[in-house]
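Note to self: keep these together.
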Amino acid sequence: MAAPLRIGCPACETPVTATVPNGPGLQSTDDVSDATLRGHDMSCRNCGHELELYFY
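Structure:
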């Protein structure tokens, strides 16, 4: 199940809701080199500003 994430658009501050898939995340700072950074592109519904969300 995906976790909802709500952030404010940096251009117009409209709340933007995205979903981030469940994953292991980072367990410690040693995990960073082995983890795969993933991303998701989306646009604000109000002003069209493109947002890029990155997660482990």
